[in-house]
Amino acid sequence: MFLLPSPVEPFTVGGRHFFVKRDDLIHPDFSGNKYRKLQAFLHTRNDAIDTVVSFGGVQSNAMLSIAAMCRLKGWSFRYIARTVPSYLKSSPAGNYKRALELGMQLEETAPDLYRDAVASARSDTETLFIPQGGADSAAKRGVRRLALEIESWRKARGIGALCVATPSGTGTTAAFLAASLPHCTILTTPAVGDAAYLRRQISALMPVPGNLAVLDTKKRYRFGTPHPDLSACYLALEQAGIEFDLLYAPVMWTALLEHDIKETVLYVHSGGVSGNETMLARYRRAGYAAP
Ligand SMILES: *Cc1c(COP(=O)(O)O)cnc(C)c1O
Q: Please, is 291 exposed, middle or buried when counting C-beta atoms within 10 Å of its C-beta (0-12, 13-18, 19+)?
């Protein structure tokens, strides 16, 4: 059911050679780093958990993955979100539509009551609470498995110094990967906030690993906001042969292509392409020629 270990492919873009670890191919609804972060829960007995609760955006990749996991395990899934835009409610699309099909129970909350709703869900001991984006120490186990796959690929290929690149939201994946791959350099680019914000996020989880390097882009991009540079990068990547997500990957690839890196670079494809349909619609609504 899950394509594991995920394959590694050579990838050439901007005249530079990379390798891509195709974690996006693990499973259609449950892939990328969300699969890795939630993997520990898959090994939990089905009857050990009744209900999972999480919260965040209504097009989130984490939301879709949790919905797919709960469907597989027979668990109920309650998701706390701010009021859903009316255009989305009248014609459901993307991760929102798919998660509802998978049985997600959406708990729409007025913006001023959202924080309290999340706080009360967090303190409910009857349910399994998964923080936004799966930023949880439970993610360590699955990310370690990813690290082992990378390490055996590196050895089989006879590669010495290896840089592993993966973009960051919460930084959970990059930080746990760095901790599990002490002989590699982990390159990451903050897609949400700046480098200082990313370090604070990681510090809440663990001491920031010394082999984690933050690569910044020359320009700053606002998370989730259409920008012509990002759609151009998405298109260049697609023309090079792989579809990536529109939220995180174009920021990391822009940073990679702006820096001169001597070592072999393995980019971990963290999935998220199921969100592209609605992101492309946002590009169109914002008046950009959508790729
Ligand atoms: C969730 C996600 C990220 C961010 O992962 P973190 O562990 O929160 O840093 C990066 N890329 C994609 C495609 C994602 O879906």
A: middle
- Give the β-pairing of 8-13 and 16-21: antiparallel
Contact present, 171 and 197 (Cβ < 8 Å): no
Look up residue 239 and give its two tokens. 């023309």
The amino acid occupying position 67 is A
* Cβ of residue 11 lying under 6 Å from some atom of ligand 1: no
Cα distance between residue 278 and residue 103, in whole Å: 20
List the structure tokens of 240: 């090079």
Question: How remote is the CA of residue 89 from the centroid of ligand 1, in Å?
Answer: 25
Distance from the alpha carbon of residue 35 to the mean position of ligand 1, in angstroms: 11
Pairwise CA distance, residues 228 & 291, whole Å: 10
Can you read off the two tokens belonging to residue 36? 């890795």
H or E stretch including 12? strand 8-13
Q: How far apart are CA 61 and CA 104, in angstroms?
A: 13
Q: For 28-58, what is each residue's pLDDT tens digit?
A: 999 999 999 999 999 999 999 999 999 999 9
- Residue 169, ligand 1, Cβ within 6 A: yes
Give, for ligand 1, the residue of 35, 61, 234 to mutate: max count of ligand atoms closer than 8 Å to Cβ. 61
Higher local confidence (pLDDT), 287 or 274: 274
Nearest-angstrom CA–CA distance, 34 and 60: 10
